[in-house]
């Protein structure tokens, strides 16, 4: 009951998406809408994954500077796993508010200002515990230090001198260390001092009556007298009396000089009514953030003037009235709300099918085919879980176990560093892994995130393929050697469409590594290299022989180049449509001369495509221009699977073509070739 009761000021988890991590917010108000639903006005907190990489670098530099100032670093003994999980506990406060339905609340958490005197491991030991030290502005994209920062260290602390013993004299010059503003042992009595202060108030009231601007702001005598009785007038009178050695006559002469009485006004009188209204509006919007108040509402006022006016404004009746109104509004608002436990099924939940043996390379014997093709958890690499959840884009088919899924939802990252996460743990709402854990290692481009060219659509087929580089890590290379019996590369090469279970292979590698099994060391081949002197002597003794080249140049009598296509006749036959080849050459097919000793060879681009024939035989054929292949008609990437039937048919065809070529060559040609 108490766990589901949420009050103003609680830090809560809020779910805005079934696949994204929870949002961390602080409840400021609980309002009931006209429809009867409850809305929560919350303050936004941001994770490291929600901020740009450049700002994250600034935050890390700020933390490093604070760590260097400490005498004993607190993060010196942290492991890589602890540092990885500690980044998930860091948040960034913001001044941004938003209203969300209270039904989106999924639980409570704790957020605290970073305590520099406390060990950082204390945040990891507590569940649902977060910390923050910087303030993030989502509109300006800036990071600022929080105003509540604890100033600990030699830069902020004063050096306390040793205590003086009895009889020791203080050698320090007190006039340089401090300035005396009032002497309580002065020769004047308390009655004389009070009478002098009454005279100072009267002088201040008379000065306001003579001042035109003060007469407009304080039109009545009572208002002028009240303004003259403020602290600024009394402080000036006592300071004047101290500077003149507590001589009443000389002090009064200074208060009323020859030019007129002295007028002392504080910030309450200097500010106009419109400026006071703007200050109250800014205070309602920003709270006590005086930097934002000055920047957005009162840029012509100094920060000192705004702060001084604030503390004087708190002594007025206006402040008391507003405080009473806020208390009455708080009584009418909701103070707490009960949210029942959310027990609806998550859309990312994977249904498990039992009873089917695993058919994935690398799966151990007796394993059952679970949802996801026998893949291990993306975070802890566990292969057994009561429930699995899909994680990441659907084409990657990554999944998480129950504990890692709850860690992902609460802390916005994985328990163990993964290749799916960037160097700064900054993952998108639907993280796209750089290298899939289980992938097909055939020519399928989709498994390597390369767009497949579709020949059906000309627009999509004209796009060029993206180049990619698959760079194996050192751990993957070591696992290749130590887990050869599980990977079975030759068998996997013959089955390109069966994915490899990288999680099971990595688990086996870690097990063998812990047991002390070391893979086969690579063979190192030593090559005996010759010296530079021996190589130069060898090259000098055997100089290279360059054959003379004949450079043919075109002369004036050189025949013009042949055209690749025969020109059409411009006679009357050209107007009668297409004609046959024999009609254009003006030779009948039965009257063409035949040369039995010369074999006609097909010609392409002026060169014979076969091995027989002579150069002269190509002159009688038609020159065919080589066609450039179109990118749209280019075929997709494919592989050829050779079976026993296809290989036998190919050998039979080659043997038949070889016999036919041997028969077509005349006996004289074969005899001359043999000689």
From TrEMBL:
Chief location: nucleus
Compositional bias annotation for Polar residues: 444-464, 596-605
Gene3D superfamilies registered for this protein in UniProt: 2.30.30.490, 4.10.1240.50, Homeodomain-like
Region annotation (Disordered) ranges: 418-464, 552-623
Location of the ELM2 domain: 148-259
Localization in the cell: Nucleus
Domain BAH: start-end pairs: 4-147
UniProt-listed CDD domains: BAH_MTA, SANT_MTA3_like, ZnF_GATA
Domain of life, per lineage: Eukaryota
Gene Ontology MF annotations: chromatin binding; histone deacetylase binding; sequence-specific DNA binding; transcription coactivator activity; transcription corepressor activity; zinc ion binding
One GO term describing the cellular component: NuRD complex
Name the UniProt record assigns to this protein: Metastasis associated 1 family, member 3
Organism this protein belongs to: Oncorhynchus mykiss
Lineage: Eukaryota, Metazoa, Chordata, Craniata, Vertebrata
Encoding gene, per UniProt annotation: LOC110491386
